[in-house]
Amino acid sequence: MGFFKNQFSNVVEWEEFRDDMIFWKWSNREIKKGSKLIIRSGQDAIFLNNGKVEGIFEDEGSFNIDSEIIPFLSTSKGFKFGFNSGMRVEVLFVNTKEFTVRWGTQSPVLIPTPQLPGGMPIRANGTFNFKVSDYVTLIDKIAGIKQSYLVEDVKIRITSVLDQLLMKWISREGKDMFNLQANASDIAKGIQEDLDMQMMDIGIGITGFQVMSFNYPQEIQDMITKTASHEMIGNLQKYQQVSMTDGISSGKVQGGGAASDMAGMMMGMNMANEMMKNMNQNQNSQNQNSDSKPSVNQNGDAGASSSSGDNKKPNFCPNCGAKNEGANFCPNCGQKLA
């Protein structure tokens, strides 16, 4: 596509239209009387004079410039046809559709967390939506110095600040650092509001922002998955003990003897504590059973005897249940009966 000074044109239109182009400027040419303005679906045409907006035309169709367009401009001072020449005109065509763009962190974002002094390295990806919201600001900040503007230009501008916004809103809304997906909606909403404020400076509005997934380093993801599986069966303590044992036996817990010794000592202490706890529980259980067990005589009466007074000897030994014939001591076990 080439532009030639003083080249006359019969049609003003967006040539070589691209879906990923936000605006395109028709300029550096003159048009003659009877020329047409063509506005296609999804386009707006903005007539400019010395960088100032003179008129915005939003209806699609084909229009006669000198009879249908010029009379509606705010001033015709800069849009007069010369006697033997055409009219110098500059038209900005704007793509009015909403754009959807995929984004992803180029490198892990280190999110501050007490569990990891260096921060939790997290990647994320998703989509965002935007459209032109303010023509005057767009012309003042971008179109005044650029011939065209692409979706990729907006994406570069947004991704340059996205890491900082992710760190800000994950730290604020990510109450559970190991389950960020649960707060993805709140995180995305906060990022969208901040992005919209920043892009407003160039006439772009952020109409949507979505976080599709958060990705942890593989070793952390494996730990999360394994911990979750053991929590589901309610045996996290056993998982920790087994993991410690596996680490020692596989050689992963090592390092000059200090790390493995510490791990072994911790495991030994845990095992000793568990053994003492089990022994105490068994001892308490036996004592309770012994205290609560009633004595049973041969007649089946718990704690009963045939004694009706302090001096009368029992008919049966309270210790072994052997029958007594009036002796002071049990003939079977020697228990004192008097």
Descriptive report:
The protein has about 350 residues and is of the alpha+beta class. The chain has four domains: about 10-95; about 100-220, 2-Layer Sandwich (Tetrahydropterin Synthase, Chain A), CATH 3.30.479; about 235-275; about 305-338, no CATH class. Helix content is about 35%, strand content about 30%. It is built from seven helices and eleven strands. It has helices at about 65-70, 135-145, 150-175, 185-200, 220-230, 235-250, 260-290, and strands at about 10, 20-40, 45-50, 50-55, 60-65, 85-95, 100-105, 110-115, 115-130, 150, 205-215. Strands 1, 2, 3, 4, 5, 6 and 10 form a seven-stranded mixed sheet that branches. Strands 7, 8, 9 and 11 form a four-stranded antiparallel sheet that branches. Strand 3 (about 45-50) and strand 4 (about 50-55) form a beta hairpin. Helix 3 (about 150-175) packs across helix 4 (about 185-200). The longest helix has about 35 residues, at about 260-290. The chain is rod-shaped and about 150 Å long.
User: What would CATH call the class of the largest domain?
Assistant: Alpha Beta
What's the helical proportion of residues?
A: 25-40%
Rg of Cα set: 44 Å
Mean pLDDT: 77
The CATH topology of the largest domain: Tetrahydropterin Synthase, Chain A
Structural class: alpha+beta
Total strands: 11
Count of separate DSSP helical elements: 7
CATH architecture of the largest domain: 2-Layer Sandwich
> How much beta, percentage-wise?
25-35%
Low-pLDDT windows of residues: 1-6, 302-309
Q: What is the ordering of alpha helices and beta strands?
A: EEEEEHEEEEHEHHEHHH
Total domain modules: 4
Main beta-sheet annotation: 7 strands, mixed
The CATH homology group name of the largest domain: Band 7 domain
What general outline do the C-alpha atoms trace?
Answer: rod-shaped
Report the end-to-end length measured between terminal Cα atoms: 127 Å
